[in-house]
Structures are given as C-alpha cells and as structure tokens.
C-alpha cells in the first residue's frame, strides 16, 4: 500500500493506505481522530465535514490520493479548547441534541464565515443545506451562526 | 424473546428507597472509584400483582473528600437531554454545585440500576420522584453531620452550591469536609426526608445546558463507533437482500484479496419472522480498517435463497390494506351503536388515509464494539437504548451466562427507537468471537435503510356521521398495519392493544357512537417503533378528519375541538374496550387520567399564542391539531407563507405543551423544536417502499429528510405552568404536527391530504 504524508491540524503525519481510501477513514481509523463522523459515505449528509486549505469538504468522498499537499483541519484542530466563536455560540445557544452531526455542522459553518463573514439568513440556509440533522436543530444552528458572525 | 414494548407492559410501581451501600456493594461499584460517601437508591419495584421485580441499587450519589460530587446517569442519552435532566433533579435536592458535578454513565445492568429501557418517553415520568428522594436524603445526612459538628439545630441549615450553610450564623462547610463524619452515619427514616419546595429549586424548572455540550462542540464526545481498542478489527456485513433470506453458498476469494481484509465469516440468522433481537443472516468481512471491509464486502460472491418475501411489494400490500378497511374488522372499542347512527345520519363523510414505511435514519448508523475474551466473558460498547436487552441477547447468542456480559453505553447519535433493538450488537459479539479479537461492526447508511426496524405502513378509514342537527353522531375508525409483533411471530396479524392505544382507541372526543376496528395484515420486513409509534399515522388520520368535519359543520377547527372535548372531566376508555385493555402508556388511568380540561387549556393557549382568530381573518394560512400522547398534552398550529415565487414554507409553528412539571425547560423546548422538524420529514419527504422484498431507498438522496432550507422557520414552544406529575416530551411533539401541517395545506390550496408523504 502506498504511503501518504499529510498535514493535519498543523502536524505532519504519515499513513499507509489504499489510494482510494476516503479521507474520512484515514482520519478516523488510521489517525484515531474521532470528532469527524461517518453518516452516509456519499457526501449527502455532511457529518464528515473537514477543511482542506480552509474550505469545507466531505471527507467521506475524497480519496486520500487526491489530498496532495493540502492542509487538513478537523474539529480537533479548529481551535484550542473550543474557543472558536462558532463553538462558543453553539454552547451559548445549547444547539446540540444527540450531537452526532454537530462537528460537521460547525466545520461547515466555519468555512462559510471564512468566505462570507456576514451571511444573510438565506445564505446560511443555502450554505448549510448539505448538512443533515435528524434531531432537528436547524433553527438553533442558524441562530448560533448569526450570533457568531456578530462576534467575529 | 418477545418484544419488550414499554406501552404493552404495565410500568413497575416505584417503591424506591435510598440506602447506603455496604462495603461489599460499594466495592462492586467499580465505576465509582472516587471513595468517600456514597448513597444508592433501591428501586424496590413491584409489578402489577405486587410481586417484587427488582431489589437492587440503582442510582448513586457519591461525594469525595475533595468535594467532587458524582452522579450516575442510568438512562441512555440519544439527544433528549436525559443524561442531564435526571442528575439535575438529584443535584437540586442535594444542593450541589452543578458547575463542578461529574456524571458517569451506568453500564447496562437492570439488577443494579433498575429499568434502563430508554423508550416510550418515560424516563422523567418514572424517575422524577426517586431522584428527588435520593438527593434529599443525601442533603439531610449532610445537614445532620454539619449541624452536629456546629451544635446547632438542623432546621436552621440548608445546602447550597456544594456547602452546608447555617442560616443564623452564616457558617458554612463544604460537602467534602463532612465525608469522614458520614462514613458511619445511619440512614434517616424515609418519612423524615423533606423534599424542597418547588419554588426553592435552582435547577428543576430551569434551562440547564446539557452536560456533554462542550465535548460535543469539540468533537470529544464518544459515540458508538468512537471507542478504539488495541488490535480492534472492523467488520461490515453483507446481509440477505430480503428479510428471511439464507446463504446457499459464498466465495470469499476476491474479498480476501483486498488489502486489509483478514477474514470472512458467515453469520447465521433466522428465516422469517426475523425477531427483534437477532442478527440477520449474512456474510461478514473483517478487516484492519473500515474501508478495506467495505471494499471486501463489494468483492464477496454470495448465492442466496431469498425465501418467502422475495415477491413482496409494499405498494400492492398497501392497496390490499386500503381495500380491507371497507370490510368489517375486529372491534376494539365500542360505545353506543355506530350502525344505527350511520343509518339515521343526515350526512356521512368517509375518508381513507395512507402512510408509508419510515426508516429511523439516525444520523449515526448502527455500530457496536465487542470483545469476546478468551476467558469466555464479553465486553461491549454500544449506543444502546436498552442495554439490558442487549446484554440478554448477547448472552443468548454466545450461550453464556448474562453475568459474563458487560455492556457499556456510549452516547447515541440519535435513537428514535431504532437502537432499542440489539441486533447489531449481537453481530459484533458473534464476529469478535470468530475473530478472537475486539471487533467493531459498522453499518453503512445503505445497511441502515435496507435493514431497519421500520415504522409500518398503514391504511385507515374513518366514517363519520352527522345527524339532522349537524352534530357529530358517530365515529368509526378502521386501522390496519403490520404490527410490531409480526417481526417476532406470524400469528400477530392485528395491531396489539398497545399499538391501538396510541391515538386510535383513545379517541377522546365526546361522540355518542364510537366503533373502532382493526384489520389483519402480515409482516414481510422488520417493523419496530419509531418516535411516537402508531400515533404518527393515527393522529394524521384523526385530526385531518376532524378538520374536515369542522368545515362540514361550519365551525372553526379550534372551536370544534373544544366543543367536542365537552365538559372538563377525566375519561376512562376501559369500559368501552372490546376484547382488550387500554394501556395508558403503562400507567394506571387513575394516576394519569385523560383530562379533557388540560387538553382544552393547551388548545386555548395555542389559539392565543398563534393569534389564531385574528391571523386567520387577516388571511394567514394556518392549520391546527391537538393530540395527547405518552400522557403529555400538546396543541399545535402551523402557519405557512408563500414566497414571491409562490413556494410555500412553514413560517411559524406554535406548540403549547402540558407535560406537568417541566424539569429542564430548555430540553423540553428543544424536543419540540426537533420534534416538529422530525415530523416535517415524515409529512413531506420520507418514505420507504419495497419491491421484490428489497427496500428501494438506499441513501439520503432517495430516503430524504428535511434540510435547513425546508425546516420550519420559527418554532414557538409554550410550556404550561403546572404542578402535575411530570410526563415525557421526546415523542409527543411529533403526532399533532403532521395533521396541523396537512390542515394548513388545505387552507393554502383547497386540497385535502389523505396520503403521506405530501408535497408542500
């Protein structure tokens, strides 16, 4: 199996993996970072969202061979001790119910605010449409993003 | 093992007693390694006939000399907030410092912890009083120790923020400093324990953030698939495409050629019926990582005997079911004489309603980790709603004593009833045994949608008669759907009493002639319980029909419901039940009566909160329904708006809820916010169908759940002030939302809705 050198959360890691192994399983199985979740395997639910050079991608559908030199950021690397304004807003508005989708939601929202620091309600809805929440926390997610945008 | 449906069984009567564990007991409580002072709660529960069901320690409070208060959560956390709410009750009575509290999740052991079946919206209902008593007993003992130390009257002392305080002198002492003097303290008499006045609570009745909040936002919270053991293998299973299929032969050659794949193992499962706690027949690929296992599975070559369901077509069965409802069924409840009401009616309105199969689609697909050890014991980590059932199913599958099985409960990435069933945990232990190593079995989304315990599809017919004065003189409700029992037995052709009691025989309206009938249908797939269970389809039919009747009678739907509920009174259905019982969610009807006054109060409140009359007069598109389920009274108004392109969206949802005392008000609201969104998916986007016995939906592109742009824009939840006994809120938000939305749709476009899902 080929060896890949990755930069993840600012650290250099070397892994041996099948070239079509999705980044999700590299992160979860080979690097033992469990904050990134498996939900669908088809880029349909967003639970596996991480950043590649600061942009949200679905790690379940990106083969390791296509990562190249890009910087990978997972929820574990988003901030020190949950200090990102979105994480704080999530806490302030008690967003999660079961919590399973929330790391993907936060990573997707962080990428949104990076490119659009003051999104309208409609822009938030459209940007977050790829992230499913089965418990139904969409309203609080939206409120938390709006509140974090104010504090950026 | 036959289904353990919470609503089929009488709930055990609580006779809990607080106790001090013996040294021997204490040593057994390995999770509580904090030392110091420990209190247990004995759930001395008696069954319906007074027999002793359990006599064992259940929930524990421990206080260490360094002031750490540790509470045990024994119910599973799947998003309702129960892991916070029950400890919150204990902590409030105790007077603990909530900000420094530690919560430990109990392993699955009902002898030790009592009922852990986290289902049926009954955690708070069942454990509110025991948790209060436990906290109050610990407080009483701490105060006794402090007051004796100070030589003051215990009545002048109270606890607050983890300290005992003497109100007269202002002296205070942290709990930890009293631990030593409590080592030999004796337990106060139960009758001497004073619970706090409700007005003095600091946590109960308040918005308390969930315990795992920060861990969740940082990706540190541990769900089912997140546990990692040394040398753990990963397995995925190729299950028979049709339920009941058996493996004829298979070739593992190509699968074993995939790098990372280590072993291919056949799992033997039952033919039809499949049962609720057995693994399905399949071939498992065990690998060093998940991706290799998935690829190995794709390379498997299996020849199947598809069995008796290979021609099953759900649309065809549904059409048959609709037809059957025009026949005479099995009468389940009878009042007056419906036939006479019908024959003398001035007008008869007859409607049929259809609803599809639904999958739970928890965002975390089933996953479990098992380690069957060389000494024959077994340890499991699983996102289980019912860890004791998992434990028993494991013991049975491995043919070992249940005492050799330890089930650790992780957080659940959604449950909704799916994760009560231990089939996936059984798979993990069988595979760990075969691999002689720890194994995580990982379900993919396709596995989850193809092999769920679905909510049954259903057909209903309601025939209503109006007399010459335009009064509703008769109500005849026919219902048919493959019963949950059909998953375990081919003899279960009718819905059980439990299922009939969920929004069908408990028709609460004051109609002189009522006849409720069920019809036969057969099971062909695995069915189970989904958030609010049969209430989903029953409430849809009942409240859509009532809306239509209100119109036929020239009445406002809310005025109509209030008038049909009649005088404020308590209803019992028992005398009108035919050949069965009304279950009342496992509770005696005298302890939890069906109170029309409480229902009318939530209806009046929702009319006010939604500004119903005025808004309708101003042309707002609004629909209404009110439905009691799981002993909680809920009224719901849904308001739609059209955007500039003419597209409809739910702009506002108004809920009023009477759940008695609301323990964690924020989590009550969040359950309603989420419940409406869950119900919106059931109403508008989701359906499972079967062709040739195979589910036709495979992932979130074909089994759709709503996304943020489709979600109701504003959800307003009003919790009625109440000192009634608390009741659950996990399921009650779902049933009234669907008919309220359907009734609003009628206002929008003049078309009545008779079939789920519908487009908005």
Automatic annotation (TrEMBL), chain A:
Domain 2Fe-2S ferredoxin-type: 2-78
Keywords of this entry: 2Fe-2S, Iron, Iron-sulfur, Metal-binding, Oxidoreductase
CDD domains, alphabetized: fer2
Record-linked SUPFAM superfamilies: 2Fe-2S ferredoxin-like, CO dehydrogenase ISP C-domain like
MF GO annotations: 2 iron, 2 sulfur cluster binding; metal ion binding; oxidoreductase activity
InterPro entries in UniProt: 2Fe-2S-bd, 2Fe-2S-bd_dom_sf, 2Fe-2S_ferredoxin-like_sf, 2Fe-2S_ferredoxin-type, 2Fe2S_fd_BS, Beta-grasp_dom_sf, Diverse_Oxidoreductases
The UniProt record lists the keyword rRNA processing: no
PANTHER family named among the record's database cross-references: BLR6218 PROTEIN, OXIDOREDUCTASE WITH IRON-SULFUR SUBUNIT
Protein name according to UniProt: Isoquinoline 1-oxidoreductase, alpha subunit
Organism taxonomic ancestry: Bacteria, Pseudomonadati, Bacteroidota, Cytophagia, Cytophagales
Automatic annotation (TrEMBL), chain B:
Gene3D superfamilies per the UniProt record, alphabetical: Aldehyde oxidase/xanthine dehydrogenase, a/b hammerhead (3.90.1170.50), Aldehyde oxidase/xanthine dehydrogenase, molybdopterin binding domain (3.30.365.10)
Protein name: Isoquinoline 1-oxidoreductase, beta subunit
Origin species: Algoriphagus ornithinivorans
A single MF term (Gene Ontology): oxidoreductase activity
SMART domains according to UniProt: Ald_Xan_dh_C
Superkingdom, natural source: Bacteria
InterPro entries membership: Ald_Oxase/Xan_DH_a/b, AldOxase/xan_DH_MoCoBD1, AldOxase/xan_DH_MoCoBD2, AldOxase/xan_DH_Mopterin-bd_sf, N-heterocyclic_Hydroxylase, OxRdtase_Mopterin-bd_su_IorB, TAT_signal_bac_arc
Domain Aldehyde oxidase/xanthine dehydrogenase a/b hammerhead: 218-308
One Pfam short name: MoCoBD_2
Classification lineage: Bacteria, Pseudomonadati, Bacteroidota, Cytophagia, Cytophagales
């Amino acid at each position: 199996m080929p060896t890949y050198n990755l930069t993840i959360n600012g650290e250099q890691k070397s892994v041996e993996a099948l070239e079509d192994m999705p980044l999700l399983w590299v992160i979860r199985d080979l690097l033992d970072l469990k904050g990134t979740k498996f939900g669908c395997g088809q880029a349909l639910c967003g639970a596996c969202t991480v950043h590649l050079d600061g942009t949200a991608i679905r790690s379940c559908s990106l083969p390791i061979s296509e990562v190249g030199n890009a910087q990978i950021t997972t929820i574990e690397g988003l901030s020190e001790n949950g200090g990102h304004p979105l994480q704080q807003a999530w806490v302030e508005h008690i967003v999660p119910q079961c919590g399973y989708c929330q790391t993907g939601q936060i990573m997707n929202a962080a990428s949104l605010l990076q490119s659009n620091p003051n999104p309208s309600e409609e822009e938030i809805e459209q940007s977050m449409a790829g992230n499913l929440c089965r418990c139904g926390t969409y309203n609080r997610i939206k409120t938390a993003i709006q509140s974090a945008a104010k504090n950026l | 093992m036959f289904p353990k449906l919470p609503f089929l069984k009488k709930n055990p009567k609580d006779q809990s007693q607080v106790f001090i564990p013996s040294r021997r007991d204490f040593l057994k409580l390995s999770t509580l390694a904090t030392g110091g002072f420990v209190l247990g709660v004995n759930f001395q529960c008696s069954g319906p006939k007074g027999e002793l069901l359990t006599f064992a320690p259940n929930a524990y409070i421990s206080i260490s000399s360094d002031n750490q208060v540790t509470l045990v959560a024994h119910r599973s956390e799947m998003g309702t907030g129960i892991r916070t709410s029950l400890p919150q009750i204990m902590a409030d009575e105790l007077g603990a410092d909530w900000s420094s509290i530690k919560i430990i999740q109990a392993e699955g052991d009902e002898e030790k912890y009592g009922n852990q079946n986290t289902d049926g919206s009954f955690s708070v209902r069942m454990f509110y009083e025991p948790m209060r008593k436990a906290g109050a007993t610990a407080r009483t003992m701490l105060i006794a120790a402090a007051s004796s130390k100070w030589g003051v009257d215990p009545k002048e002392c109270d606890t607050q923020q983890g300290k005992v305080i003497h109100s007269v002198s202002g002296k205070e002492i942290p709990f930890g400093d009293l631990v030593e003097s409590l080592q030999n303290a004796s337990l106060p008499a139960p009758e001497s324990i004073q619970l706090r006045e409700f007005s003095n609570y600091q946590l109960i009745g308040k918005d308390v953030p969930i315990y795992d909040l920060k861990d969740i936002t940082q990706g540190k919270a541990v769900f089912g698939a997140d546990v990692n053991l040394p040398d753990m293998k990963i397995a995925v299973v190729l299950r028979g495409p049709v339920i009941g299929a058996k493996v004829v032969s298979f070739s593992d050659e190509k699968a074993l050629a995939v790098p990372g794949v280590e072993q291919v193992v056949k799992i033997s499962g039952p033919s039809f019926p499949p049962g609720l706690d057995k693994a399905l027949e399949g071939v498992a690929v065990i690998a060093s990582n998940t991706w290799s296992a998935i690829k190995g599975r794709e390379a498997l070559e299996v020849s199947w005997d598809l069995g008796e369901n290979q021609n099953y077509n759900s649309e065809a069965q549904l059409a048959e079911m609709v037809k059957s409802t025009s026949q005479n069924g099995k009468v389940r409840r009878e009042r007056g004489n419906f036939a006479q009401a019908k024959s003398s009616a001035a007008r008869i309105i007859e409607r049929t309603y259809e609803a599809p199969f639904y999958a739970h689609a928890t965002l975390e697909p089933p996953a479990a980790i098992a380690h069957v050890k060389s000494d024959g014991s077994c340890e499991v980590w699983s996102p289980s709603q019912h860890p004791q059932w998992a434990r028993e199913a494991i013991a049975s599958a491995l043919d070992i004593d249940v005492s050799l099985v330890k089930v650790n409960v992780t957080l659940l990435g959604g449950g909704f009833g799916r994760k009560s069933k231990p089939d996936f945990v059984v798979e993990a232990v069988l595979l760990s045994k075969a691999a002689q190593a720890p194994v995580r079995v990982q379900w993919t989304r396709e596995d989850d949608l193809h092999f769920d315990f679905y909510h049954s599809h259903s057909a209903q017919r309601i025939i209503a008669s109006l007399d010459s004065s335009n009064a509703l003189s008769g109500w005849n409700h026919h219902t048919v759907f493959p019963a949950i029992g059909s998953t375990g037995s081919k003899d279960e052709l009718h819905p059980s009493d439990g299922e009939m009691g969920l929004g069908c025989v408990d028709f609460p309206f004051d109609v002189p002639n009522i006849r409720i009938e069920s019809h036969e249908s057969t099971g062909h797939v695995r069915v189970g319980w989904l958030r609010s269970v049969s209430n989903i389809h029953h409430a849809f039919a009942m409240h859509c029909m009532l809306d239509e009747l209100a119109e036929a009678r020239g009445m406002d739907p809310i005025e109509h419901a209030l008038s049909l509920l009649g005088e404020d009174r308590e209803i019992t259905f028992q005398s009108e039940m035919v050949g069965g019982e009304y279950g009342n969610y496992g509770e005696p009807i005298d302890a939890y009566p069906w109170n029309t006054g409480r229902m009318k109060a939530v209806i009046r409140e929702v009319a006010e909160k939604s500004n119903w009359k005025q808004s309708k007069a101003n042309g707002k598109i609004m629909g209404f329904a009110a439905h009691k389920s799981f002993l909680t009274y809920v009224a719901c108004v849904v308001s739609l708006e059209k955007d500039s392109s003419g597209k409809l969206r739910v702009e506002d949802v108004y809920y009023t809820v009477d759940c008695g005392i609301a323990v964690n008000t924020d989590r009550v609201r969040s359950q309603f916010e989420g419940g409406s969104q869950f119900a919106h998916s059931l109403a508008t986007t989701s359906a499972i169908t079967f062709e040739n016995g195979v589910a036709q939906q495979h992932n979130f592109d074909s089994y759709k759940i709503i996304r943020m742009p489709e979600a109701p824009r504003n959800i307003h939840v009003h919790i009625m002030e109440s000192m009634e006994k608390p009741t659950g809120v996990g399921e009650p938000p779902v049933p009234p939302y669907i008919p309220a939305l359907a009734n609003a749709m009628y206002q929008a476009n003049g078309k009545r809705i008779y079939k789920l899902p519908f487009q908005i």
